[in-house]
Amino acid sequence: MPDNQDMFKKLLKKNGLKVTTQRVAILEVLSSRPGKHLTAEEIYDFVKKKYPDIGLATVYRTIQVLSDLNLIDKLNLDDGYVRYEIGKKDNEDNGHHHHHLICLDCGSIFSFQDDLLEALEEHIEETLGFKVVDHEVKLYGHCKKCLEK
Amino acid sequence: MPDNQDMFKKLLKKNGLKVTTQRVAILEVLSSRPGKHLTAEEIYDFVKKKYPDIGLATVYRTIQVLSDLNLIDKLNLDDGYVRYEIGKKDNEDNGHHHHHLICLDCGSIFSFQDDLLEALEEHIEETLGFKVVDHEVKLYGHCKKCLEK
DNA sequence: TTGGGTGCAAAGGCTTTGCATGTGA
DNA sequence: TCACATGCAAAGCCTTTGCACCCAA
């Protein structure tokens, strides 16, 4: 999709990064698999199909930079891999991320948005004087499919 | 504290584990520092003061087992270390863990309990058919002390 | 031109594992 | 007795880093 390519190029420039084939390719891979939570290795494999010369180190360096700029979201499931997905709102960062449902049976990951935590965060600020600016919520359980089996 | 020692011995037996000096020592270290979130290396260093012959591998194996049995809680702050703390209710496991406040400035960790998520979990179960059995909540922000500076 | 970006390989650093020995039940 | 637990060292494994080369601006 050339439209996406243009968007990514602008996104990179806007954040003071040089536009390189590798960076655009990585963003394309992530954006073509929304909510897929890919590991660095998986991103590497996908990018290599179109751009065989890319190195794994470049993938690591790129997702590092993109993550620091909040252009992509990090997800750690404690399975030894850090996963990444493209932010729902791309460059627009409200400081709050969406939450994840993780199936303990099949490993599927579902994302959802909920503002229920805002009340909790206000409560914490009032009682403890702790100013919450970001949160990470993971809910573990059994997904519909696995429950039906 | 001999009382704690006895308690830990019973706890280990109850869970089908052999009672060893190393395991009791590790539980003692964790229980004497509640809410401290120690890394394996830190646990190792503390235990070595009283029991110099212990090996780091034993610490790793022990916290693994204790964590699997929900006798201790795992906390991952994405800083390269996995941390452990003794469960507030020891062997009594209701499947839900407490939450953490993490200060982005000084790195302090505060724990708190809140049942606000239950409404959210019910909502998810009704709308998505996903049965939540556990959750992990991390709130990032600025603690009172750092705000005052 | 030139400083940031990339590829490759080596190094890092936390954690796990193999194996012989030790020990709790 | 004997299956489980431990210590030590080596191996694993994901990720980072050094360095020379390359290329977008």
Could you give a quick summary of the protein structure above?
2 copies of one chain form a homodimer. Chain A has 149 residues and is of the alpha+beta class.
Give a written overview of the molecule.
The structure is a homodimer of 149-residue chains. The first copy, chain A, has 6 helices and 6 strands, in the order ααβααββββαβα. The model of chain A has no long low-confidence stretch (mean pLDDT 90). In chain A, the strands form 2 sheets. Chain A has a 3-stranded antiparallel sheet. The first copy, chain A, has 2 domains: 1-93, Winged helix-like DNA-binding domain superfamily/Winged helix DNA-binding domain (Arc Repressor Mutant, subunit A); 94-149, Ferric-uptake regulator, C-terminal dimerisarion domain (Dna Ligase, domain 1, 2-Layer Sandwich). Helix content of chain A is 44%, strand content 22%. In chain A, 29% of the residues are buried. Chain A is globular and about 50 Å long. Chain A is of the alpha+beta class and 149 residues long. Chain A binds chain B through residues 74, 76, 78, 82, 101, 103-104, 110, 112, 114, 116-117, 119-121, 123-124, 128-144, 147, and chain B through 74, 76, 78, 82, 101, 103-104, 110, 112, 114, 116-117, 119-121, 124, 128-144, 147. Chain A binds a DNA duplex (25 and 25 nucleotides) through residues 17-20, 22-23, 39-41, 53-58, 60-62, 64, 80-82.
